[in-house]
Structures are given as structure tokens and as C-alpha cells.
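Hi F.,

I've been meaning to write this up properly since the lab meeting, where we talked about keeping a consistent format for the predictions we share between groups. The idea is simple: the sequence comes first, exactly as it goes in, then the C-alpha cells exactly as they come out, then a line or two of notes. No screenshots and no reformatting. I'm using this chain as the first example so we have something concrete to point to.
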Amino acid sequence: MDPLRQYQIAFVGLKAGVHEFSYEIDEWFFKLFDDSLVKKGRLKVHLSFDKGISFFLLNFHISGWVQLMCDRCAADLSLPIESEYPIVVKFDEHSEEEKDDSMADVVYINRSDSHLDISQLIYEFINLSIPLNHVTCDYLRGEKPCNTDILNRLTLSPENSPMVKDPRWDNLSKIKFN
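Output, unedited:
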């Protein structure tokens, strides 16, 4: 059985109008995508699916949190996510050359399709919702950073560093250049 089957919408049997779908996203979902930056999180996806005659209007509302590594101290960091993404789904009537690539929020599907798989869209929208800088809000407000022990290790000056000088490199310092 396809683990992403629950994210396939059988639109052929739906009447014209607005339909609502809800999904719970957790670690299981992110494991299905290779090389996912997000390994852990709890998100709710609410999908408003407006079925028209020749196209569909989808509005994704995503809320929850994802766990990533802090860019400053490598500690686990829970980042809140709250975003909305509208998208238009049209039936494929033209060849690939005739499609307008500037319409990034339009997805084309084949007229012979009976299901719309939204799992990839959900995955991409979650990744688009993640801030570029993964640091705690406390640090951004000037308060105590998340993991001071790691930050102190990173800021040690070479003189105070507990590292021992390797004697093999002493001979290199004796070389004189003209």
C-alpha cells in the first residue's frame, strides 16, 4: 500500500464547489522524502479545495512547528510555522512548449487523471515556510542565547584554547623566505 495514499484526492467523484480536507503531519511524513532537512515536527494542514469545471483552486493553510538545528550553537530548535499558499490546478491541454513557466502557482494535470497527489505540494510548502535563519528568537531579541557552552567553545581565542601545539610543525617555522 502506498504510504502517501491519504494525500491523494479523488476529484472525479467530487461535486463542484468547496471541499475541506485536514491532514496531520509528523515525523512519519518527512521520512518519506529523501534528504529532507526536517526530520521532526507537528503540523496541521487545512486544505480548501474549490472544484470548478475546468480548474481547481486550492488553498493550503499550514500551522504547527518543525524541529531543526540552530545555526549558531547546533542545539535542537523548534520553529513555529504559520502560512497560507494558494495554488491553481488546471487540466493539461497544451504541449509542454506552450505552457507559461512564469505561472509558478499553477499546476497542470492530465485530463485522464482521476486523483490529485498533494503530498509533494505539502512538503514543498512546509519547506518554504521555514525561515532562512535558524536561530532562537531569544537571541534575536538580545536575550540569552540558546546553548552558551557551545558558543563559548566557538569563541575561545587560540591562546586560551586547550589545543596542544603539534611539534611536527615546529620545523616549518624555522624556514626562512627571501
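Notes:
The chain has a mean pLDDT of 82.
The chain has one domain: 5-153.

If this format works for you, I'll send the rest the same way.

G.
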